[in-house]
């Protein structure tokens, strides 16, 4: 997360481009934790990031990028209340069935609601659609051995993932066509 995805998201303009695009923005969660998403506390307890913490990390990176871009804009006033909603960055979260990353829908909803209230005093909080996708043992794919996958780790079933991604994009295209026909 911190050495692969986030460095590409903090580049100037990435947050702005993602937030202004009307397509589905899908976050695929890993099926297991790695060295960047787990840590050992002083008492020896192991802590791990949950889905909300992944979303917060992605949103914070995209906010940094967005603010960099906006600072150069003649319309910028440096006001952080102009930041996009969470769902301007992430509309869907997909996670493999039986994965290690905890999905706490209450925590995720609270994060989105808090962000909505801080940004635009919206009465309707944004919410991310969360969907579980069929999985397979990570060791059934050759690439899993490169990323630490073992038999207890879960990865997306490729066919199931493609099916869900197609469904999301079809749904998005349907709403796009409806909104286009309403404007003519």
Could you walk me through the main structural features you see in this protein, from its secondary elements to its overall organization?
The protein is α/β, with parallel strands linked by helices and 184 residues long. It has helices at 6-9, 14-20, 51-71, 86-89, 105-120, 158-183; strands at 26-28, 38-40, 46-48, 92-96, 129-133, 135-137, 154-156. Strand 4 (92-96), helix 5 (105-120) and strand 5 form a beta-alpha-beta unit. The longest helix is centred in the C-terminal third of the chain and has 26 residues, at 158-183. Residues 178-184 have low confidence and may be disordered.
Given the C-alpha coordinates, what overall shape results? globular
Series of secondary-structure elements, N-terminal to C-terminal: HHEEEHHEHEEEH
Ends distance? 43 Å
* Structural Rg: 18 Å
Low-pLDDT stretches are 178-184
- Structural class of the helices, strands and pairings? alpha/beta
> Overall mean pLDDT score?
81
- Assign a percent range to the helix content: 40-55%
Number of strands: 7
Spatial order of strands in the largest sheet = 1-4-5
Q: In this structure, how is the largest beta sheet organized?
A: 3 strands, parallel
> What is the tally of helical segments?
6
User: Which percent band covers the strand fraction?
Assistant: 5-15%
């Amino acid at each position: 997360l911190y050495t692969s995805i986030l460095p590409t998201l903090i580049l100037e303009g990435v947050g702005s481009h993602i937030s202004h695009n009307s397509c589905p923005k899908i976050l695929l969660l890993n099926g297991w934790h790695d060295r960047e998403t787990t840590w050992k506390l002083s008492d020896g307890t192991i802590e791990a990031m949950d889905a909300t913490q992944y979303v917060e990390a992605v949103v914070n990176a995209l906010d940094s990028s967005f603010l960099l871009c906006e600072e150069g804009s003649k319309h910028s006033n440096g006001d952080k209340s102009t930041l996009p909603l969470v769902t301007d960055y992430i509309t869907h979260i997909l996670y493999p069935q039986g994965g290690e990353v905890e999905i706490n829908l209450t925590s995720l909803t609270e994060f989105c609601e808090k962000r909505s209230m801080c940004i635009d005093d919206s009465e309707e909080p944004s919410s991310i659609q969360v969907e579980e996708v069929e999985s397979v043992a990570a060791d059934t794919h050759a690439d899993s051995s490169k990323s630490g996958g073992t038999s207890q780790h879960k990865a997306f079933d490729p066919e199931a993932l493609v099916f869900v991604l197609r469904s999301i994009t079809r749904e998005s295209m349907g709403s796009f066509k409806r909104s286009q026909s309403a404007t003519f």
